[in-house]
TrEMBL record:
It comes from the Bacteria. InterPro entries: DUF4240 (IPR025334). This is DUF4240 domain-containing protein. Residues 155-276 form the DUF4240 domain. Pfam families: DUF4240.
Length: 301
């Protein structure tokens, strides 16, 4: 049966539309509280599969760029997105129950299924794929090479780290972890929310260096391949900030102390969430410094 499903259980199979219009499939192989261990299957076809398709029991092995025979599995937080199509359940085997994974990829979205498409491109259209990745990076660099990154009005360090200390990192769900900080910021002024955003962007910008990118764990920057996931590096920098002042300053001055295989994606959404709660309107604001990866030109020389 093909239907929408908002909750999830180990063994559940979901189909996702890939960038080229074909279908990919992911399977949940473990669940801890609100976190899901997602496996990308080898399924890649122009039609929606039936639950009996053998490819749905096969986990994709990745070899593109810096990957070396690595299983496409990762932990995600959040509810099942609306664009996930539930097709059935294949009970998790005893072997699968023993699978260990320390990779965390942030909030669950349809992009979790994209590795099967990227691997297909790597095998069947590698030159164009590599050129596209390089072109995207060069485009970002060209668009921003003349930008001067200067923060606008920021909080004092004491103010900023006091707010960051409100994150409840004992919570496994990012939204739950961020909630105390969002609620506190939402009770302050709009200008204060923007000052928080400015300070956060600047802290993330300072960590945007090649040396820091080399130290984020399994998917760190590979100099030979000249590749790293821009989003993955951003979320790792978010994790460094979320851990507080002492950890951040240690990592800033000693890149080898960057968090390994960790992320805290929701951090860059906190100002937006607080603003919406405060005003009931959408948040449109550009910080003086960009937190996006590769924006710190000096750091990537």
């Amino acid at each position: 049966m093909k239907t929408k499903k908002t909750n999830a259980h180990p063994g559940d199979l979901f189909v996702v539309v890939l960038p080229d219009g074909r279908y990919g499939a992911i399977r949940i192989i473990n669940q801890v509280d609100k976190s899901l261990l997602i496996a990308v299957t080898t399924y890649l076809e122009p039609r929606i599969p039936s639950v009996s398709d053998q490819q749905l029991q096969m986990i994709l092995i990745q070899n593109r760029f810096s990957y070396k025979n690595e299983s496409a599995i990762s932990w995600y937080d959040g509810k099942i997105p609306k664009d996930f199509l539930y097709i059935g359940n294949i009970p998790v085997s005893e072997h699968e129950k023993m699978v260990e994974c320390n990779k965390y990829s942030g909030s669950l979205s349809s992009s979790c299924a994209h590795p099967v498409y990227w691997e297909w491109r790597w095998l069947n259209d590698r030159e164009n794929y590599e050129n596209e990745i390089q072109a995207e990076r060069l485009k970002r660099e060209e668009e921003n090479k003349h930008r001067i990154h200067v923060p606008k009005q920021m909080m004092t360090d004491v103010e900023f780290w006091t707010y960051i200390s409100m994150l409840d990192l004992q919570q496994k769900d990012e939204e739950d972890a961020a909630s105390p900080l969002v609620m506190k910021l939402a009770k302050t002024s709009v200008s204060n929310i923007k000052r928080f955003d400015e300070t956060l962007a600047y802290k993330l910008y300072l960590l945007d260096t090649k040396e820091h990118a080399k130290q984020i764990g399994e998917f760190a920057y590979n100099e030979e391949e000249d590749y790293i996931s821009a989003d993955g590096f951003l979320y790792a920098r978010c994790a460094a900030v979320a851990k507080g002042k002492f950890f951040y300053e240690l990592a800033l001055n000693s890149p080898c102390d960057m968090p390994k295989d960790e992320g805290f994606e929701i951090l860059i959404s906190i100002a937006h969430e607080a603003y919406v709660k405060r005003t009931g309107k959408e948040y449109y604001y550009g910080t003086g410094c960009s937190y996006e990866s590769f924006e710190n030109k000096e750091g990537w020389r």
